[in-house]
Structure formats: structure tokens, C-alpha cells
């Protein structure tokens, strides 16, 4: 059990309120901590040690960049997807390594092994297993230039940033695409959201042709007050 003591020389400071705010800022539920006063005018916050330990990252949803991480990720893929049972481990590692370098997670690769980029499930069964089938499925998640397409989790992250700002979900798409009915944010909010989206794309998608083109389309569709794009 950890104990935090809060005190102040200013009698106007609400120490209990400060302690409650501290607990909330750490994501601790009120019933998970004890807040009480002692006779010296201090407020004591007691926290279970388990709340102070950093939770382990979900192995299916964290990026894998180091060779060891990629090796462990491929072991997980081998266990989770029955169509990979007859695929040589080195082949699996070679086919997926660049996807992991582009910020994909194990869950993203599992999704790609089960679905086409348009969301349609791949056929399954004894006739759809082995090395050739693995390569065919992963090739579908590359552009004609050979770049890695954004994964499902990367696209979801980008769309969350855009939707929170009130931007149309189809921002940056060709003009003949049907326009969204979502409200458009103010220019200041739009620019901020676009900057956040670009940072996410740089972080998760690295510098593939897809991510660069999407950044260009996004910036081209935001008009500033001075009339410049």
C-alpha cells in the first residue's frame, strides 16, 4: 500500500478536493483509493500498489519494431491463424516484418490475413492455406507501388481524430466522392485536427506513398481565412 501526504500553508486550499483531483488525474476510481485527514492538517491518500504498476501492453495491439518483438509476434500469428500452420516460420517473418516496421500490430496482421482491404473476408478452408496464400493476402495490403497500406487500427485512429473535430469523414477524398453529412468544424479546429491526423500518420504509417498522398489531400481541402489552402 502506498501513502501520499498532501499539505499546504494556505488555509484556503481545499486539500481533499486536491486529493480527489489527483486520483482522477491518474485514472483511479474513487472507490479504489482512501482519502482521509490526520490531526496535523494533512490529507492522506492511500493507494493499492497494483494501481501504481504500469499495466502490461496488450500483446495483440502494441507496435512491434525490434527483431525480437517481430519474432514473438510471428509466434503469436502462428498460434492464432490455422492457415499459417504449414508456413515456414522464416517465410512468415520475412513476409510480415515490413508491416510491423510500418507500425502494424499483431491484431492488424490477423485482420489482414482474414480480410481484404475493403473489409470482405478472405475465403477459408484447406484450399486456402500455406505460403502462396499468405503472400497473396499480404500483397493485397500493399499499393501498386509496393508501399504498405494503413492498417485497420491506423485508419481507425486517424478517423477518430477527424470525427472528434467535426470534420467530414471523407475529407481528402476525390471530389466525386459523396460528401458526408457531418457538420464541418471551424477553420481553427479543422487545422488542429488535420495536424493531429498528420502526426498520427507519420507515427503509425511512417513515410509510405499512401500516407504522404493522404496528408496532401487533407491539407488541400482545408481553406484558411486568408483564402490560401
From TrEMBL:
Q: Which domain of life is it from?
A: Bacteria
Give the Basic and acidic residues compositional bias ranges.
Answer: 212-229
Listed Low complexity bias regions: 182-192
**Which segments carry the region annotation Disordered?**
173-229
- What are the Polar residues biased-composition ranges? 202-211
Q: What is the protein name stated in its UniProt record? A: Uncharacterized protein
Query: What is the species of this protein?
Result: Nocardiopsis sinuspersici
Q: What is the lineage of its organism?
A: Bacteria, Bacillati, Actinomycetota, Actinomycetes, Streptosporangiales
Amino acid at each position: 500500500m502506498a501513502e501520499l501526504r498532501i499539505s499546504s500553508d494556505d488555509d484556503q486550499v481545499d486539500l481533499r478536493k486536491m486529493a480527489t483531483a489527483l486520483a482522477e488525474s491518474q485514472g483511479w476510481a474513487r472507490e479504489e483509493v482512501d482519502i482521509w485527514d490526520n490531526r496535523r492538517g494533512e490529507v492522506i491518500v492511500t493507494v493499492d500498489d497494483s494501481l501504481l504498476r504500469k499495466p502490461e501492453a496488450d500483446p495483440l495491439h502494441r507496435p512491434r519494431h525490434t527483431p525480437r518483438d517481430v519474432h514473438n509476434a510471428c509466434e503469436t500469428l502462428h498460434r492464432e491463424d490455422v492457415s499459417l500452420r504449414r508456413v515456414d516460420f522464416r517465410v512468415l517473418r520475412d513476409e510480415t516484418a515490413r508491416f510491423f516496421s510500418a507500425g502494424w500490430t499483431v491484431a492488424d496482421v490477423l485482420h489482414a490475413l482474414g480480410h481484404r482491404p475493403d473489409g470482405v473476408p478472405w475465403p477459408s478452408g484447406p484450399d486456402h492455406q500455406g505460403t502462396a496464400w499468405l503472400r497473396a493476402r499480404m500483397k493485397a495490403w500493399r499499393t501498386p507501388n509496393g508501399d504498405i497500406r494503413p492498417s485497420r487500427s491506423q485508419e481507425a485512429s486517424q478517423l477518430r481524430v477527424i470525427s472528434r473535430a467535426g470534420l467530414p469523414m471523407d475529407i481528402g477524398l476525390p471530389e466525386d466522392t459523396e460528401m458526408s453529412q457531418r457538420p464541418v468544424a471551424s477553420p481553427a479546429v479543422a487545422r488542429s485536427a488535420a495536424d493531429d491526423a498528420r502526426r498520427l500518420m507519420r507515427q503509425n504509417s511512417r513515410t509510405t506513398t499512401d500516407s504522404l498522398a493522404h496528408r496532401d489531400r487533407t491539407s488541400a481541402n482545408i481553406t484558411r481565412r486568408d483564402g490560401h489552402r
